[in-house]
Specification:
The complex is a heterodimer of chains A (416) and B (468).
Chain A lengths: L1 E5 L9 E7 L6 E2 L4 E6 L4 E5 L4 E5 L6 E3 L3 E6 L15 H10 L3 H9 L7 H10 L17 H18 L14 E2 L6 E2 L4 H16 L2 E9 L1 H18 L6 H14 L5 E4 L2 E4 L5 E3 L1 E3 L2 E3 L2 E2 L7 H17 L4 H4 L4 E5 L18 E5 L3 E7 L2 E15 L5 H16 L9
Helix pairs in contact in A: 3-4, 7-8, 7-10
Chain B lengths: L3 E6 L5 H10 L4 E5 L6 H6 L1 H20 L14 H25 L2 E5 L1 E6 L2 E5 L5 E11 L3 E3 L12 E2 L1 H4 L8 E5 L3 H12 L3 E5 L11 H13 L3 E3 L2 E9 L2 E8 L2 E7 L1 E4 L3 E3 L32 E3 L10 H15 L13 E3 L4 E6 L2 H6 L4 E7 L4 H6 L5 E7 L5 E8 L2 H13 L4 H5 L9 H11 L10
Parallel strand pairs in B: 1-2, 1-6, 2-3, 6-17, 8-15, 9-10, 9-15, 10-11
Antiparallel strand pairs in B: 4-5, 5-6, 7-16, 12-13, 13-14, 18-19, 19-22, 20-21, 21-22
Helix pairs in contact in B: 1-8, 3-4, 3-6
The chains are: A alpha+beta (416), B alpha/beta (468).
């Protein structure tokens, strides 16, 4: 009996994704639990595992967009592993042709858009071997003909694109994502990864939807620095994780959110929803783009718990193991441009949230302390907020609260 | 007289081809030639007559030395030089009238006389009888070619110290024939008279012959020509040539050695210089470079609007086919079209036996440019057709980009190299790779298979040799 492999629901507000890599080929015998393919969504890429053992027949080609619930393959569970003879295996090429022949919008477009070109013998070989679509490669030869160099470049440039698409970086991108290069190599055109495209759309959407405004302040980091220096050894020994700055800012944000609850809410249609929990998103830059894993119930977590959660997420993000649920449902976000050296910036909201705190680089700067100029480790703070929901007074109050908590950490529940 | 669209000064392979193309494009075209016949150096005293003699003497060599191997017995094969020269003249005449009729069919007006630019848009033609005619034109193309370079200590006298022009017309083979300069002209004419019985010595200032060609093949050619009886003295600097009673004595230095060469005829073939004087170009304000070549932009336009120059009179290799391509591109530009030349795909040939042909980068140039390259070679002795032809000498050599496999250079030494090189030129013109050529089916048995095999050897997969 054939069991259908469907795209599972992977998270709220996710309706589609892209089958970026098949880890098993058509004709392969798969065991239940084996990773079948990587599903790339706008939030994260997830490996989808087989639910039954049997022989796989992949239907959807790599690179195709699929909807939640769509059938992407079947598994014939009537066959056992030992019954799979080499002759049963279909060559990957064969499955490619089969899938390509199925009505597939993109493919049909490409075919009708440009008539088949006569290729030189070497280009023909590379196109065959590398499964390239010659129509999508820019030719640098006479009258735009493809040279072997063009074909080699197309085959090679595909790999970096593939790495960008998948955090695991094991696969090559779909043949539909050919790079284009100008004849003199002055520019290279690459298809953006699904994640990048989604990030782009999200950012523009945020700019268009909310009335984003940013308020600035600065804080003196001396107290936190001093506290960290003093407690670091004991903290590390006790908790197995270092005491960083981020936990202070999460705690300070929680305090500020408590003081100015409207920042912890969001607008939905004509309603304002006030969140009474504190799920704080911490923006982490990865190779594939920015991800914002959520530290749940930050108000209930100790400093040690917070540091551990952040460290966990950083590792997962690096290894591409973040799950959809790690990234959804935050109420407020903290972004630290300081790690890259930013002195001042205006963060963009992470919809549907109403506020985002921007941390920056700590710089010794002269400040007046008790009427005297002193060099202090200073950090600019920025709060971008949705002015539709939050008044200027509230935003400024919030940021001052954060500043006060950082400058005087005794205002925070220092549980270490 | 109506104003012309284009007036071309010089009817060599640059000028007359430009005229044909201009006629095709509907431009009102005139060509001005100072000599009686059209065709320039190439047709009258260069490429064409030298090939006539080279072919004739090659046949003689076959009759004398090779025919017997084929079971063809030719007793007492000898040369009637007079007849050989008459045939050569007939070849030239045939081509002359060919060009003339091409001018006619393409509605090109021909002016006989020395053309000078008197002002932008004005050309005066002074004919042999002293009459002067003014013609007006929108555009002028200077296609006056080049002339043989003279050595200050061995000035041409047309009898004993000669240029290639006279060396094509000897009525008897000089007993001792001294050639100064081992380039194409020296090697070809040295070969002609060597085959006809002259004792030929070639002096070259450089440590190698056939500069510009791949050194490996140049060396093979030198070996071959030496075996044919030509004596070479490389790194030899001629100091003086003295004439006494119609006989020449040349003194030269080779390292610390003082050498003396006696000769009945001395051919000075040390290069050619642009024929850019006396055209009025300077008066018209046209700029020249330091070697008296006319400066042009990428569309062959000089610094003066309406004045163009092509061929030997501008920079680049002094080759007839280069001049022709430039003529076409130049005229197409004037007609508002997009003419273009790929200078990496212009082959050079020396028509000795074996012929030496090369296009693109030599191995030394690739090294110099620090290009990562691969070499593919194939010897003709492994070609069935070459064996059947009894033309075993020579090799095909490819230089391909190490990363993209694009063919950067192709070099062929073979009896038919001049024809074989065209295939490589085509592939280079299309930006092709050695693999493209290697995967193209070649007829069997042909010499061109060796070209394919050499291309295959780039990736070490030639079939009829051990690949290394």
């Amino acid at each position: 009996m054939s069991v259908e492999v469907k795209i599972p629901a992977v998270g709220e507000s996710i309706t589609s994704g892209i089958v970026s890599v098949w880890h098993k080929k058509s004709g392969d015998f798969v065991n239940a639990g084996d990773a079948l393919f990587t599903l790339e969504t706008d939030k994260v890429s997830t490996e989808i595992a087989a639910e039954t053992s049997g022989v796989l027949d992949a239907i959807v080609p790599e690179g195709q967009e699929v909807k939640i619930g769509e059938v992407v393959a079947t598994i014939d569970d009537s066959k056992k592993a030992r019954e799979v003879k080499p002759s049963d295996k279909k060559a990957p090429e064969k499955s490619e042709t089969k899938t390509a022949a199925s009505p597939h919008e993109k493919y049909a477009d490409a075919k009708t858009a440009s008539p088949a070109r006569t290729l030189s013998p070497a280009v023909r070989r590379i196109v065959d071997e590398e499964h390239l679509e010659p129509e999508k490669i820019s030719g640098t030869g006479k009258s735009g003909r493809l040279t072997k160099a063009d074909a080699l470049a197309a085959a090679q440039n595909r790999e970096p694109v593939g790495d960008a698409v998948s955090v695991s970086g094991k696969q090559t991108a779909s043949p539909t994502e050919q790079d284009r290069q100008s004849a003199d190599g002055r520019f290279v055109r690459k298809k953006m990864s699904p994640l990048r495209r989604k990030i782009a759309a999200q950012l523009v959407m945020a700019q268009h939807t909310a009335a984003i405004l940013t308020t600035f302040n600065e804080c003196d980091m001396s107290a936190v620095q001093e506290l960290r220096t003093k407690s670091q050894d004991a903290f590390t020994k006790k908790n197995g994780v270092k005491l960083g700055f981020m936990s202070f800012f999460i705690k300070a944000s929680v305090e500020a959110l408590r003081a100015v609850p409207v920042v912890n809410g969001r607008i939905e249609d004509e309603d304002f929803i006030q969140n009474n929990f504190y799920d704080i998103g911490v923006a982490v830059g990865t190779e594939r783009g920015l991800v914002v894993p959520i530290v749940r119930d930050a108000d209930k977590k100790s400093f040690a718990d917070l540091e551990r959660a952040i460290a966990d997420y950083a590792t997962k993000a690096r290894e591409g193991k973040l799950k959809i649920e790690d990234l959804t449902g935050g109420t407020f976000t903290i972004s630290n441009g300081g790690v890259y050296g930013s002195l001042l910036s205006t963060p963009i909201l992470n919809p549907p949230q109403s506020g985002i705190l921007g941390m920056h680089k700590i710089m010794p700067r002269p400040v007046a302390v008790d009427g005297k100029v002193e060099a202090r480790p200073m950090m600019y703070l920025a709060l971008s907020y949705d002015h539709r929901a939050i008044d200027g007074r509230e935003a400024v109050t919030f940021l001052i609260k954060v500043k006060e908590c950082i400058e005087d950490p005794k205002k925070l529940p220092l549980d270490f | 007289m109506d104003k012309f669209d284009v007036v071309i000064i010089g009817s060599g392979p640059g000028g007359y081809v430009a005229a044909i193309r201009a006629g095709q494009l509907g431009l009102k075209t005139a060509i001005v030639e100072k000599d009686k016949e059209l065709g320039g150096t190439c047709l009258n005293v260069g490429c064409i007559p030298s090939k006539a003699l080279l072919t004739s003497t090659d046949h003689f060599m076959f009759a004398k030395k090779e025919a017997e191997k084929h079971g063809i017995v030719i007793e007492n094969a000898y040369v009637d030089l007079n007849k050989m020269q008459q045939r050569k003249d007939k070849v030239v005449k045939t081509m002359n009238s060919g060009v003339r009729s091409l001018m006619k069919t393409n509605k090109v007006t021909t002016f006989e006389g020395l053309g000078t630019i008197t002002a932008p848009g004005k050309v005066s033609v002074k004919s042999a009888d002293g009459k002067t005619q003014e013609i007006e034109t929108k555009n002028v193309i200077i296609a006056t070619g080049s002339a043989a370079v003279e050595l200050p200590f061995a000035k041409f006298d047309g009898k004993t110290i000669v240029s290639s022009t006279e060396a094509l017309t000897f009525t008897e083979p000089p007993k001792k024939f001294l050639v100064i300069g081992a380039g194409a002209v020296g090697l070809e004419l040295g070969s002609v008279w060597n085959r006809l019985g002259s004792e030929v010595t070639i002096l070259e200032f450089l440590p190698r012959i056939a500069i510009g060609f791949d050194l490996e093949l140049s060396n093979l050619l030198q070996r071959s020509l030496t075996a044919q009886g030509i004596t070479f003295h490389l790194e030899t600097k001629v100091g003086a040539v003295k004439i006494d009673n119609g006989r020449a004595t040349a003194t030269a230095t080779k390292g610390n050695e003082e050498l003396k060469f006696e000769a009945d005829k001395v051919l000075v073939s040390v290069g050619r210089k642009p024929f850019s004087e006396g055209l009025g170009a300077e008066k018209a304000g046209v700029e020249f470079d330091e070697t008296r070549r006319i400066k042009v932009d990428e569309h062959f336009k000089t610094n003066i609007d309406g004045i163009y120059a092509i061929g030997d009179v501008i920079a680049g290799p002094m080759l007839a086919h280069k001049a022709s391509e430039e003529g076409i591109a130049c005229v197409e530009r004037i007609a508002g079209k997009d003419g273009h030349i790929n200078y990496d795909a212009i082959a050079g040939v020396i028509y000795t036996n074996p012929e030496l042909a090369g296009v693109g980068l030599t191995e030394d140039q690739a090294k110099e440019k620090k290009i990562d390259y691969h070499v593919g070679r194939f010897p003709f002795r492994a070609s069935g057709r070459a064996v059947a032809n009894d033309d075993l000498e020579g090799i095909v050599k490819f230089i391909a980009d190490g990363k993209t496999d694009r063919i950067l250079g192709a070099h062929i030494l073979q009896h038919a190299a001049s024809e074989l090189i065209a295939e490589a030129v085509s592939v280079i013109e299309f930006g092709g790779s050695s693999e493209d050529l290697a995967r193209t089916c070649h007829s069997h048995p042909t010499l061109s298979e060796a070209v394919k095999e050499a291309a295959m050897n780039v990736e070490k997969r030639a079939l009829h040799i051990i690949n290394r």
